[in-house]
Amino acid sequence: MSLVTLTRRLLNLSAQGSPLRRSAFVLASDTAGLKRCSLPGQLQACCTRQRNVSTSTQPLRADSKVTINFINRDGEKITAKGSPGESLLDVVINQDLDFDGFGACEGTLACSTCHLIFDEDVYKKLGPVTDEEMDMLDLAYGLTDTSRLGCQICLTRSLDGITARVPDSVTDIRQSEDVSS
User: Fold this and answer.
1) Is 4 helix (H, G, I), strand (E, B) or coil?
2) Residue 33, pLDDT above cutoff 60
3) What is the pLDDT of residues 142-159, one digit of tens each?
4) What does the sequence similarity comment in the record state about its family (predicted)?
């Protein structure tokens, strides 16, 4: 069994919700000397030369959060916090912000309902726009030169304190109807 096949099996077990322990799985640096062993209901490959696989995550600290200010359709400023690596859409969902129709496709880049408008200086910090995002933005209601999709903007510490304005209305191209507040 190749190392690639073994890795795929381990990832499949993990994706299926099987409990994984640090020492439960080992990977081989080569395929020589492989033998079979099993856990209840699962077949796993073990080897004579072992390397433990472990992962660790750092606990999130309050000061590692990034502050984002949203201006909703009523002109109210709503401040939320997100973790670096999260998208602006994730922040809206995780903080349960009530922006009607926002993020209808859940970040699959299949609509433009997470359309946000930024000030020019903030827009320049956001990174490049992909062709796929530009295609969706072309269909967005109230498109501006500084429009972006919230699902495509990942938070970094350099974005701390930015302001994003939610447009007056959104268009969900999947339904071909206008959702207004």
Assistant:
1) helix
2) no
3) 999 999 999 999 999 999
4) Belongs to the adrenodoxin/putidaredoxin family.
| Predicted confidence (pLDDT) per residue in 83-92, tens digit | 999 999 999 9
C-alpha distances (whole Å) from 47 to each of 2, 32, 42 are 12, 8, 16
Per DSSP, helices labelled H in the chain are 3-15, 88-94, 120-125, 131-137
Closest CA to 163 of 84, 82, 68, 52: 68
CA distance 127 to 115: 16
Please check whether residue 114 is in contact with residue 102, taking contact to mean a CB–CB distance below 8 angstroms: yes
Q: H or E stretch including 147?
A: strand 147-149
Exposed / middle / buried, residue 169 (Cβ in 10 Å: 0-12, 13-18, 19+): middle
Q: Where are the beta strands (DSSP E) in 28-123?
A: 34-39, 42-47, 51-52, 66-71, 77-82, 115-118
pTM of the model: 0.61
Closest CA to 31 of 15, 61, 55, 7: 7
Residue with tokens 């909703």: 72
